[in-house]
Every structure is written in structure tokens, then in C-alpha cells.
Amino acid sequence: MIEKNNKKTIRSWAFFDWANSAYNLVITSTIFPAYYTIITTTKEHGDKVTFFGKTFVNTSLSNYALSFAYLIMALTLPILSSIADRRGNKKSFMKFFTYIGGLACMALYFFKLDTLEMSIIFFSIAAMGYIGGVLFSNSYLPEIATEEHQDRVSAQGFSYGYIGSVLLQLICFLFVLKPEWFGIVDASFPPRLSFLLVGIWWIAFSQIPFSVLPNGKPQTDKVKTNIIKDGFSELTKVWNQLKQIKKLKGFLISFFFYSMGVQTIMLAAAGFAEKTLKLGTAKLIAVILIIQLVAIPGAMLMSYLSKKLGNVNILITVVVVWIGCCIYGYYITNEYQFYSLAAIVGLIMGGIQSLSRSTYSKYLPSNTPDTTSFFSFYDVTEKLAIVIGLFSFAYIEDLTGNIRYSIIALASFFIVGLIFLVILRKIENKELVKL
């Protein structure tokens, strides 16, 4: 058993966010998207690239690749999480996904235009490593913190993630902006070195939670049965439980729709900025750094407000702001407008992620031994939302040739999510009246 609310355990757990958020910042948000867009835009073919004989718009290809990675993980994680609960080896799965993700990032050091196909594959594998690690990390939250502390602990994890990723980003920033300080003449070397550093950082700092967090207690009553059968059997049991909990089911539906918008914006924003505004790598990195720094007080602010006004009320407010951001993003024409939008997104980005994780954790049945399996539903919901969001974003751009239409389409996802949040609030209010 893990001692709940233990400061050392919580700090160690938060360091997993510190470790893997470097991937989220450098690979999905700043240097990789800028580098990718630049090297795949040529005089001969414009923004078109060939991937195993088929032609794509460059940004569409990267979004399709991410969408594929998330789909694969959405299909496999429920089984793996059920197995982890049965076997009591969730930390082993955390390690596996961390190592394949980190090594894939290191392999991106060799990314140039003539290695596009292999690099896109490594790009997808890195995403799979990140997704898998986050699931098993999230499942520890209800085990390390009591319900009244979960908002704070969740926010602490995101804050560690933002701080850690910004520190590595600043190191990479020096190489990208001042290559002459280090005697670098190859313009592609600084970004490729950044990808290598992400992999090293990710694996190295993950050793902190790996050394403290336990594997979990195996459920010995079924260890001798078929491992795949165990996975599906456990998944079915959790699904049947989930259907009986109105608040949990209602929250997951809402989370599914607004996550289509949130996660797609986070993953596609850098490509949008580079393509439509031509910000360049330096300005793009600076903007994303601002977002990360603003996100830290944002996560803490949402945690504080949720205690005063309730989680669902704050989520409703934040989703309304996201809808406004989508509409504003459609009309952006210059870098200063983008900076102002980035500041707003930064403030609400950390808050909605942190609050969503802790809200879901609070709705779980008390004393359930199946935290990994329950959190697999949370993660699968998010991953399927990302698949649909990214695919829609890429498809609309391919269809219209205008990435701005992809941005405005995301507002519809937020609107549906908002409707279900309002319904969830009504369910909560009815339960309070009964009490």
C-alpha cells in the first residue's frame, strides 16, 4: 500500500511530468513543428511531401501520423492497463513506454528531408511512448492522494511539468538562436540536437519516480488465467461499473468532446503559426515558453477556484473561453495577435488539463483496486478525441487548402462539450438537493 499524501511520494510522482513534458514542449509544440515545416517546404514542391509514394500537405502528414499513434494506443491501452492491475506491474509498463519514447526522440537526431519516412515513424513511436507513460502515471493519482488533495497534487504535477520542460527548452533555445557560440555551422544541427536532449532528459529524470513509486499489488486470484482474457475480462467489469455512475459517465462524454479541441490546438498550434504567420523558430519558441510559464499559475488558479466554486463550474467557464479562442484564432493576421492569444491559451491550458484529471479521479468509486483500468477509460477517451480532432484538422486543411478553417471547426467540439458539462452540473445539483 502507498501512504497517501506523503510529500516524498508526491514529489517523485510529479517528477514524471517534469521528465516527459520536455517531449510535449520540444517535439509537439515548438522546435520539431518549426523544423519539420521548414525542411519539408521546398521551392520545387511547396508544402507538399511524399510519404511512401503518396503525396500529402506537410502539416497534414504530421497530424495524420500523430492521429495514427493515438489510435493505436487507444486500442491497446485498455488491455495493457487491465493486465497491469491484475499483475501489479504498472511501473514496468511506465518504464517500457518511457524508454521507447525517449529512444525514439533520440533517433529524431537523424531527421533530414531524405529520411522523412523513417523520421515520421520515430515521431509516431515517440508519441506512443508519451501516451503510454502518462496513462500509468495518472493511475497513481488516487493512490497517492486523498480526494480533498487531488486537485492540488494534480496541479503540482502539471507545474513540475511546465518548469522542467521550460528549463530544457531554454537550453535548446541557446543552441537554436546562438549556434555560433558553440561553433555550429550546420543549421539543422541545433534542432536535431534538441531532439536528442529530449530523449536523454525524459529517460534520466524518470528514474526519480521509478525509484520511489511501487509496482502495485497483484490481484492473485486470477494470475494463472490467460493474460489477454484477464485484460478483456477486467475491462468489461470496469465498463459495467462505469455505466452505473452517472456523474462519471457524463463527465467522460463532455471530456471527450472538449478534448478534441484542447488537445488538437496544443498539437497543431505551432504548425498553424509557422505556416500562416511565418513566425520563425526563434519567435515560436519564445511564444511557447510564455505559454508554459503562464500555464503554471493557471493550473494553480484553477485548483484554487475549484475549491471555491466547484470543479464543474470552473470547467464550464474555461470551455467558454476556449470557444472564444477558436473564433479569435480564425481572424489572426499578425504576430502580436498571436501573442495575445497565446497568453490566454497558456492561462487556461494547464487549468483544464489539471482539473479534468482530478475531477475524474474524484468521481471514481471509493477504494477501487482498479485505478489503472479506470484511468484507461479516461486516457482512451482523450486519445480517441485526439484521433478525431487531429484527423478532422488535417482533413479540413487537405480539403480546403486553408488551415484557418480547421481552427474554426474546433469550436464546434467545445460547444458540444459545454452542453454536456451543463448537464453534468444539473446532475450534481440534484444529488446535492437529495442530501
UniProtKB/TrEMBL annotation:
Keyword Transport: yes
Transmembrane segments: 21-41, 61-84, 96-112, 118-136, 157-177, 193-213, 251-272, 284-305, 312-332, 338-356, 377-396, 402-424
Top-rank taxon: Bacteria
Subcellular location as annotated: Endomembrane system
Keywords: Membrane, Transmembrane, Transmembrane helix, Transport
A Pfam entry, by short name: ATG22
InterPro entries with a match to the protein in the record: Atg22-like, ATG22/LtaA_families, MFS_trans_sf
Protein topology in the membrane: Multi-pass membrane protein
Name this protein carries in UniProt: MFS transporter
